[in-house]
Amino acid sequence: MRNNKIVKFIFGIVAVFVIVLVLVNLAGNPKSKQTSEFTSYSEKDIAGKITFLKDKINITEATPRKASVELTTASLYDELPEIEKYPLVVEGTGDIVLEIFVSPEKAGSGKDGWLIEAAKEFNAQKFKVGKKTASVSIRNVSSGQGADYIISGKYLPDAYTPSSRLWGDLIKAQGGNVTVEVDRMVGNVAGILVSKTTKNKLETAYGKADLEAVIKAVVNNEIVMGYTNPLSSSTGLNFLLSTLNYYDQDQLLSEKAKAGFTSFQNNIPFVAYTTIQMRDSASSGKLEGMINEYQLYVNDEELSKYEFIPFGIRHDNPLYSVGNLSEGKQAALDGFVKFCQESKMQKLAAEYGFNGMDEYKGDSYDTSGGTIVQAQKLWKENKDGGKDIIAVFVADTSGSMDGDPLLQLKKSLINGAQYINDNNSIGLVSYSSDVTIEVPVAKFDLNQRAYFQGAVEDLQAVGGTASYDGVAVGISMLLEAKQKSPNAKLMLFLLSDGATNEGNTMEYVSPLIKESGIPIYTIGYNADIEALQTISEINEASSINADSDDVIYKIKSLFNAQM
């Protein structure tokens, strides 16, 4: 009996000790209660988790106000940044100076700097045109953006060397004045990168591993791959045209080609905004195939574990003169082209990863007239396989956004909205310490555009920053809207400075984001970019740093591609 009393006494002491530990833990860590409760929902559906989170959020609904909407046709060219945003990486001197737009794989750093090295050596030789000294200046501008400058006439260099001839054809089709000076500065090839296992799978199923086998495997849902935005990426544009050509070699824009592309696109999980985004997705094991250029492939250790399958036309880096050059500048350009084709410079190019895979002759398909322009339009209209797109914009209106950040956010949304198609459904949420549903989700017709414009104009910065509360409410709105459109494609855009100091945390919301599968595109203003990138990476979306002079152009490009 005495022993039983001692045992009970000991158990009583232990129980009291455990209770005290729990109470101390809860007092010292207010969020521990939230963690425990959230864990209890781990086996329930997403709606249950959202309800749990929303119960802890103060949510109000604003009274929408209509504002005047600009009805002029949107032009991405209008938002091209001033050219000084892309400073010269080589600055020529002398009596005659040529300025050349050069794509980043030739005008970057390290092994991406071949044409920089060539320009410096050429300039050091003091090339003469008659009695005048000639030199070249190099400006690092991506192929697609360089084409935009030339087509718009906003800034015209003397010469332009994109990754492939597709951009020259595009410029000509839209009235730009460019002339091919040389078809090949250095050799390069576009390719599909797949794991060795995937390559073996393709060879077993289709007898070979090539573009045809990859397309068939994607359509049959046997492999998962991604590609880059064909509105701005040389390799992405080549891939789009090659896919259309596979379905109809006689006419890239036929109904047959369109139907084939749609069946292919239905099994593409996402189109990357940048090559880096796509590479990171492949590195994480979420993609079995991706596209890239051979020069980057051989220079990147991370990519060495993949097999390279060439496709499409070759990327031989042609060089174009722009406009009508003077005799002096034409002679200087001829001299520079000849210098770059000398054995010394071509040997350097090979050391930097160019001039490989010369045995690949490349495909050929019609890119004359407006074929490329129409193919890009076809892609934008059919990239979602006829699915509705539902998007919610989540705008940070905390006190830290006051001033220029909020002004830039408003400008981003108002200007970017011009690139959202009428058949998309759009909603708007703002948040500070609390969350406000500014505009419920609805088709983006003229009426909804007016409400959206009015709500954006009225946004004011005040209070704390509960970013993940805003994200949770945005996801809830998207899932509710999807009940009416079960096949819709959902996406969320978070515009913020990335500094969260109130409400739910990443720890609690990230499982919900992941389970929902909704991509979250983040746009940072004076932001903690790393925090925003972490959110975007959960479901393969992109992140834009708005602390740059070309943010409006970048955001319009993003909306143009995704919406």
Q: Summed up, what is this model?
A:
The protein is α/β, with parallel strands linked by helices and 563 residues long. The protein has three domains: 46-67 and 387-562, von Willebrand factor, type A domain (Rossmann fold), CATH 3.40.50; 84-187 and 316-351, D-Maltodextrin-Binding Protein, domain 2 (3-Layer(aba) Sandwich); 189-314 and 364-382, Periplasmic binding protein-like II (D-Maltodextrin-Binding Protein, domain 2).
Keywords:
D-Maltodextrin-Binding Protein, domain 2, vWFA_dom_sf, 3 domains, disordered N terminus, Rossmann fold, alpha/beta, seven-stranded mixed sheet, 563 residues, 44% helix, 22 helices
Task: Please describe what this structure looks like.
- With 563 residues, the protein is of the alpha/beta class.
- The chain has 22 helices and 19 strands.
- It folds into three domains: 46-67 and 387-562, Rossmann fold (3-Layer(aba) Sandwich); 84-187 and 316-351, D-Maltodextrin-Binding Protein, domain 2 (3-Layer(aba) Sandwich); 189-314 and 364-382, D-Maltodextrin-Binding Protein, domain 2, CATH 3.40.190.
- The strands form four sheets. Strands 1-16-15-14-17-18-19 form a seven-stranded mixed sheet, with helices on both faces. Strands 2, 3, 4, 5, 6, 7 and 13 form a seven-stranded mixed sheet that branches.
- α3 (46-54) crosses α19 (467-482) and α19 (467-482) runs parallel beside α20.
- The longest helix has 27 residues, at 2-28.
- The protein is globular.
- The protein starts with a helix and ends with a helix.
